[in-house]
Backbone:
């Protein structure tokens, strides 16, 4: 049975480390991907990278359509895709999207990404795939791949916007800490 993993919150140092390529495929990897999926859905995300749950493996999962489903179908209509050792092999166009992140909750920033990308990856069995992604799928793929390289979405913002976003996040964290202590 899949379990919910702890999502690391910025500024945890693991979020800034580069993940290592997966070389062993099998039951352990499949179970880890199931745990990641369970975690992503529990936290209401559309993507989750392994280093966000403390594992420096080149693995992330996506299900960009999940949040668009109704509450009834969300429980049964899940379609997570695992990307193992993912890479981008082509980039095309440009699109801006207001991104957020489970590791820096409740703050968002307008990030410019490639609108269409060609990608190569493996599944949990080690089988290789290539495909083209566009729109939200391309944005989410780039966001999660950044995580595997120790990059956060706000690193793509101007210095002023990044500082403003981090100040807002730090203020929310202080308020949260104060509330949890009963002050």
Residues:
């Amino acid at each position: 049975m899949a379990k919910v993993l702890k999502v690391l919150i910025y500024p945890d140092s693991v979020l800034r480390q580069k993940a290592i390529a997966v070389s062993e495929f099998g039951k352990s990897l499949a179970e880890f991907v199931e745990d990641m999926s369970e975690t992503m859905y529990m936290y209401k995300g559309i993507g989750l990278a392994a280093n966000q749950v403390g594992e420096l493996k080149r693995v992330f999962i996506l299900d960009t359509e999940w949040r668009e489903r109704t509450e009834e179908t969300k429980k049964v209509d899940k379609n997570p895709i695992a990307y193992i050792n993912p890479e981008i092999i082509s980039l095309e166009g440009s699109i801006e999207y207001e991104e957020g992140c489970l590791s820096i909750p409740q703050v968002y920033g307008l990030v410019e990404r490639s609108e269409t990308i060609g990608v190569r990856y493996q599944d949990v069995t080690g089988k290789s795939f290539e495909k083209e992604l566009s729109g939200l799928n391309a944005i989410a793929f780039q966001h999660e791949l950044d995580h595997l390289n120790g990059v956060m979405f706000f690193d793509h913002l101007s210095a002023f916007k990044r500082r403003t976003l981090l100040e807002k996040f730090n203020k929310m964290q202080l308020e949260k800490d104060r509330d949890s202590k009963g002050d």
Strands lie at 47-49, 59-62, 81-92, 95-99, 109-113, 116-122, 128-134. The CA atoms of residues 8 and 52 lie 5 Å apart. The two ends are 39 Å apart (CA to CA).
